[in-house]
Amino acid sequence: MSQRVQIGIYSLFAQNAMRSSHHRLGGAEKRSLLFATMLAEEGVPTGILMADPGRFGRLRQTKSGIVPLYHPKYRLRSHGIQIQKPVFRSSLSARLQDKIRSSVGLPIINTPEKAKKAAFAPFYKAGASLWVGLSLNDSMLELAEFCQEAGSTFLLGLAGNVDLDFIFEPNGRDMYGASREKKRKAMELASAVLVQNRFQEKTLRHYFPQKPIYALPNPIVVPKVFSEHPVRSGAIWIGKMDSNKNPKALLRFAKKLPQLTISMVANPAELELEQEVLQNMPPNIQVIRSVPYEETQALMAKAQVHLSTSFQEGFPNTILEAAAAKTPTVSLHVDPDERMKEGLFGFCANGDEDLFAEQVSLAMLRSQQVESMMDASWNYVQENHAYERIKKRWIEIVKTLTQ
């Protein structure tokens, strides 16, 4: 029988972070684990509701005291998540059966309410008074509707800026396949919203002025200042193999600088894109497929430069991890909160791939300008993103929402 909790965090892929797995591990999973850990450290009964990996893959307990919870509607598979539709949605035969029963005056037995009850059951079983979701997708609407029915508080945390694309384009699906209509409905039902950058906060205050908004930077464990400068070589790219992370741009860049060795830590996501990238891989890129979350900081510290080719982000954990390792980031498109324009983290090429290559060469020189920039970036991360500082603010937000 599952243990009941006070705070529930809904993150279908979070098991990958809890098992120190690299597979499909993104910023939302890292934040889910860190926020749950902060609460557990304060003695708050906290659980993470995840996709079900099957009886032999489930965690029974965690060292940090977080309660692992599972949703049987979502089955964790090697290729992603499989929705158990026959259990949670009436099949064609069941709907025909209901139609026949209705035509002869008998009550129907396969109703949408029955499917909804089954989908809501894991939330009721957990018993949380506050639910937290750290991305905006189709499954988050399910949680939002449950919280409305059960009278629970729902804190919706935004991940990338793409979470808000429904404001500007109300129809269709976003780049990850999430329904924009469902995203809007989930936003409307949220009790409050957690944002991670100034764009998200400004946009929400304009379009949803009635919605309580809490600004909370991404947390990161900041290592101590190096007593000795690490031996650095080459470049590093960390991300999922998906269209938004734009791995094809990395291939084009690698061909422009064939003398530069690039470590590409590539988590699986879009299978067709991954196959295309691997088939066209230039010899100066080394693909790394298995890096536990806690080891990414060491990889960052060994690199001369961190590369980011994403089209959109929120406030990327990888850029923070690079800054904590005093490794400059060169970003093709994303300047988080325009901090690079202010002289932090590294350089942004604003989509210009030739300029991107020039900036990489500049960053690798480790001039006094770059060294000073990275000292300032380390201080910025320490003051604004350090684990203990974010933990204090996070606990305050949770207390406000649960009073």
Features:
403 residues; alpha/beta; eight-stranded mixed β-sheet; six-stranded parallel β-sheet; 16 helices; globular
Task: Give the SSE layout.
Layout: E1 7-10, H1 15-18, H2 27-41, E2 46-52, E3 67-77, E4 80-83, H3 85-88, H4 92-103, H5 112-126, E5 130-133, H6 138-150, E6 153-157, H7 165-168, H8 180-189, E7 192-195, H9 198-207, E8 213-215, E9 235-240, H10 247-256, E10 262-267, H11 271-279, E11 285-288, H12 296-302, E12 305-308, H13 317-324, E13 329-331, E14 346-348, H14 353-364, H15 368-384, H16 387-402
Parallel strand pairs: 1-2, 1-5, 2-3, 5-6, 6-7, 7-8, 9-10, 9-12, 10-11, 12-13, 13-14
Antiparallel strand pairs: 3-4
Helix pairs in contact: 2-16, 5-6, 6-8
Uncertain spans: none
Distance between the termini: 28 Å
Number of strands: 14
Give the helix level as a range of percent: 40-55%
Describe the model.
There is one protein chain. With 403 residues, this protein is an alpha/beta fold. It is 41% helix and 17% strand. It contains 16 helices and 14 strands. It has helices at residues 15-18, 27-41, 85-88, 92-103, 112-126, 138-150, 165-168, 180-189, 198-207, 247-256, 271-279, 296-302, 317-324, 353-364, 368-384, 387-402; strands spanning 7-10, 46-52, 67-77, 80-83, 130-133, 153-157, 192-195, 213-215, 235-240, 262-267, 285-288, 305-308, 329-331, 346-348. Strands 4-3-2-1-5-6-7-8 form an 8-stranded mixed sheet, with helices on both faces. The longest helix has 17 residues, at 368-384.
